[in-house]
Amino acid sequence: xxxxxxxxxxxxxxxxxxxxxxxxxxxxxxxxxxxxxxxxxxxxxxxxxxxxxxxxxxxxxxxxxxxxxxxxxxxxxxxxxxxxxxxxxxxxxxxxxxxxxxxxxxxxxxxxxxxxxxxxxxxxxxxxxxxxxxxxxxxxxxxxxxxxxxxxxxxxxxxxxxxxxxxxxxxxxxxxxxxxxxxxxxxxxxxxxxxxxxxxxxxxxxxxxx
Amino acid sequence: xxxxxxxxxxxxxxxxxxxxxxxxxxxxxxxxxxxxxxxxxxxxxxxxxxxxxxxxxxxxxxxxxxxxxxxxxx
Lengths: 210, 74
Fold this sequence. Notes:
Number of helices of chain B: 2
Strand order of the largest sheet of chain A: 1-7-6-5-4-3-2
Shape of chain B: flat
Number of strands of chain B: 0
Oligomer: heterodimer
Number of strands of chain A: 7
């Protein structure tokens, strides 16, 4: 039995910026559980799409009730693979992430699609789907509930991590209350720009008569 | 960020720097010219693939986008 979950998110940055940030998202203040990151395969296809495989090591935290099911030599790190296809022609990126360790106990597969927000070309939509399952008979419900809870948690951290890295890339000072400060700053910037434009316009007018 | 192979971290960072520049300035802009990072990539891969084997990380035989095969397009 597989638990399916789907959600959508949005980043207030262009698709290009999000793709660039995608390769630079580790480390960030929300990714302390990510221990290592490696590209282990990369290729540009004849149709100019970028294929990549990234191997991640993350700390593995299992709840107490799972412990009897963990083999004695189970490591405290989990290995995750993330495959991705970046299509600069279509302006889409598709990623598939899944764990290659602890997989019989709990398997989490996540597919994401990053594309330009159809209503706002300077924003990026992320459609996220996850499939959570276990092969251990009798644990389905517990594993799915635990897995889903943890997955939702990690989605929040992922989005915050992205926002942090994007802010840094754009020369802003990132903070934990990024959305709030970003909104305020945007308002302030818009106001300042308006004032400056008025100023320049009146100066230009004055110059005409000199 | 560290590599899974402790000895590979410097090579990884060197490759990442090259890649990030090429990705933003050439690839995303539709420039289909050559990849300037092949040398640093080869060096890095030699190191990291060795580390993967030493640590017995089960990456072999995993098809690209493998688990996607049995999932419907939504």
